[in-house]
Request: fold
Amino acid sequence: NQGVGGFVLPERAYNTDGNSWTVETRQFSSLSRRSIFETRFAASGAQSETTPVTSGVRINVLDTFSSGGAQNHVRNEGRTYDLSNLFTRLGETLSMKAGFGYIFRKNDSFSEGNFDGTFTFSSLAAYNAGRALNYRVTRGDKLVQTGQRELTFYLQNDIRISRRFTWKI
Reply:
């Protein structure tokens, strides 16, 4: 029962709930005394939802009260998957690092904010007379789904010129 108090009546209350999780695993392999190979996988997700206690047209009477449905039903869900590897070879003069990374993100967002409409009245007298100052309503697609993929490759060489100077390529 959040969002209640002052001029906001109990019927405008809403509840919020959410959770998240993460899993990660890493694998290291020593291929030789100077070579290391690492693979990493991580997955994470989150979900949150705001649910109105009641639904229906919202009534705002300025400086007097606010009643009707909360009209703030929102649900968000997201997942991220991350895979990467790294090969490292340490040499006396030349050291090398090479690898790749791949990330996939998926997000779903559902929102019904003000889909039932809101009447706003300038005063209690205007409300009793049925003369609204304005009426607003939201229309459109309630669900938005997005996905993103990222792919990276990299290579780095370190050349040791002297004890005090290393050149990175």
User: Anything to note?
Assistant: The two ends are 59 Å apart (CA to CA). The chain is about 5% helix and 65% strand.
